[in-house]
Amino acid sequence: MLQRRAFLLATAAALTMPAVSALAQPLVKGRSTRVRLTGARAPIDIVEDELGVPHVRANSLHDAYFGQGYLVARDRLFQIDIDHRRDMGRMAEAFGEAFVAADKAARLFHYRGDIDAELADLPPGVLECAEGYVAGVNARIAELEADPAQMPLEYGILGISPMRWDVRDLVRARGIGMGDADDEVRRAQMQAQGVLDADQLMAPLRPAWSYTVPKGLDCAAVSEVDLGILLPSARPVPFDAIQEAALDPAERRTDRFAQGSNAWTIAPSRSATGRPILANDPHLGIGGFSPRHMVHLTAPGLDVIGAGAPGLPGIMQGHTDRFAFGRTNFHIDQTDLFILRTAKEDPELYWHKGQWKRFESFEDEIKVKDAPTQRVVQRYAQGKPIVAQDPERQRASAFATVSMLPGGNMRFAIIAINLAKDWTSLRRAFRIHTSPTNFHYADIDGNTGWQTIGYTPIRPKHDGLFPAPGDGEYDWAGILPVEQMPHVHNPKEGWFASANQMNIPADYPYDKKIISFNWSDPFRYDRISEVLNAQPRHSIADSIALQHDVQSLPARSLIALIPAKLSLDAAKAAGLLRRWDCGIEADSAAALLYEMVMPQLLSNFRDAVVPEAAKAFIPSVNLYEMLSILAKPDKRLGTDPVAARDALIDGALAEGWKKAQAQAGGDPAAWRWGDLHRVRITHPLASSVPAIAAAFPPIDGGRSGGDSYTPMARGFNAKRGYQVSHGASYLLVADVGAWDNSRFLLLPGQSADPRSPRYRDFYPRWLAGEMQPLWFSREAVERHAVARTLVTPG
């Protein structure tokens, strides 16, 4: 089931043709410029192809990454600058006192250890690349300072200037994030109320597990107050467009699990090409700045192309001349909330391992626009940030997160992956990779591999599901070596896939090596598996089609449960759904109806099944759990569970029918899911700053199929409307070894500047699913080159 079938058929046909589609015609053929840039060590040649992908040719690793830093600053300076300013806790100096709380929180998550030692411990070549990237960003800033007319429009509107970068800041800023601390607090509260079993309806434990409260934890004393600065409400940011949603626990959880991805790797034995195929589409936010930027970096010992995260050196998803690589989120519980006992006579002391210890304290100065500088004290216990303190109760909360450990940041790991040559050297690079990831690999020799990576805390005495006493009894005992994480090399099945599902192998000793109990529902993976198992020989066109597949497995489950006897409106809805093929197509009336019915069923099911005492803790229920219970109704639905199940479905169908009429009109023949489910991209500050809204016209008009549970993930949050809010803005299908056959998409374009022709040039291609060639060989790049920039050292 494909979105925009005609366009995909055209894309598949184009794979057999050497010519480029009409959408990829050159803008200006042969444009050439020269620039002198401080920080470059030797001349750098940058060739831009017809699709806007720059190919950096340098004589050193430093200069290759200098080129990347320069180019991402050319295309996305304000995006990376505002993120960098936020991470460094320097928003107030530009925007005023309203940002002081956010700056204080950001600085609490600055690394306070030995930065020089961190840099010295990096693998060979990595620091050189990072220094080059930073120098490239700064070179672009200097270029703009010399010619302010080129400055991104935001700076003139807001009256600010971009910050210079320092490689040491890549070590210092670790980023604030709650992890699953709010889940730990919720479970403790539910345990105190005697309703913990109901949590399985919202957050089922996978693999199956029994709750054990850490000895010494007083669950009745735990509350959201213990989360302190981790709560978004404690650090409101006026420029955060979804701040209100962040305050809603249900939406916060939805957004967390929306950050997923799909990837699959096909061995030569199952490939139509006789070579491996690797496909990857990361699901990130859609609606603001694009989370990926394309570049090709070459230098002695380096040849890598693909998409990087703006502000992060290196390529996250792409290929080298030797192997293709992709990634999806792997779920690791990387945080814990520790409850400390502080001394009554001196709240700066806390009890740990049989003695009173003093918090480590650091004083920061926060500059504030149009106001005096503010001095703040940041406290830590054994390196863990103190996020909440209550001297009256002799209580404080320490937040343990792997990102605050020595070596625990992601700023350098991607470079190490780019510099690797094979599976063996990659696994060495993984040792500095903090973020939880399913890493996919396929090389030109026909090898394929899957490795789960990311720092996994070793918890000798608890499982991380509850807050733990901070007396030292439950301290972490290190990080699980990457070699002991789940992995596979050249599996006999000939393919593997990941879509954020629970994919810990059945024979893995997860009871001794606890990784996580919270995973995304398996619907996307199950559909991917269904398709791949049915294809003895999988092609590049098949991967493109699967990335745009909109078949809904939850819809299949729902339709199978519709009872024979129905009320009048429910019968109308059932008739339309039963004639449907379960494809969430943009032009489908049944898809629109389904998207009205399923949320109503989830709401009605919650009302019927969640105990009254637990409803305050369970704002929503898990879709997979609900469908499983409805398929095999039990006493939770009452004394006659089958009748209760049928009544719930009848009610949801009837209410969904009425809602569809209210949303799309009285004539079902005119209903179209895509009329509600649109793709609109606006500047993140447009809603806060009218001048930004005027200067940056929205990119909109596009209709979309799909939802959160289809392989073509186009998620939305119904509380905010039906607009697409997350999905794959970047897609890659790599033909391993025949690299010029690889295909990609990027939404909406390379540049975030509305004055650039690359501002929205990929928007129609992305909507149509028209994958574009990712030229890699020197011959192909030269054939499709439209512009060249020669950088000389300044």
From TrEMBL:
Annotated positions binding Ca(2+): 184, 333, 336, 511
Active site per UniProt: 261
Signal peptide: 1-24
Keywords: Calcium, Hydrolase, Metal-binding, Signal, Zymogen
GO biological process, one term: antibiotic biosynthetic process
Gene3D superfamilies according to UniProt: 1.10.1400.10, 2.30.120.10, Glutamine Phosphoribosylpyrophosphate, subunit 1, domain 1, Penicillin Amidohydrolase, domain 1
Note accompanying the cofactor annotation: Binds 1 Ca(2+) ion per dimer.
GO molecular function annotations of the record: hydrolase activity, acting on carbon-nitrogen (but not peptide) bonds, in linear amides; metal ion binding
Short name of one Pfam family: Penicil_amidase
Cited SUPFAM superfamilies: N-terminal nucleophile aminohydrolases (Ntn hydrolases) (SSF56235)
Cofactor(s) the protein needs: Ca(2+)
Family: Belongs to the peptidase S45 family.
PANTHER family: ACYL-HOMOSERINE LACTONE ACYLASE QUIP, PEPTIDASE S45 PENICILLIN AMIDASE
Name the UniProt record assigns to this protein: Penicillin acylase
Species annotation: Sphingobium lactosutens DS20
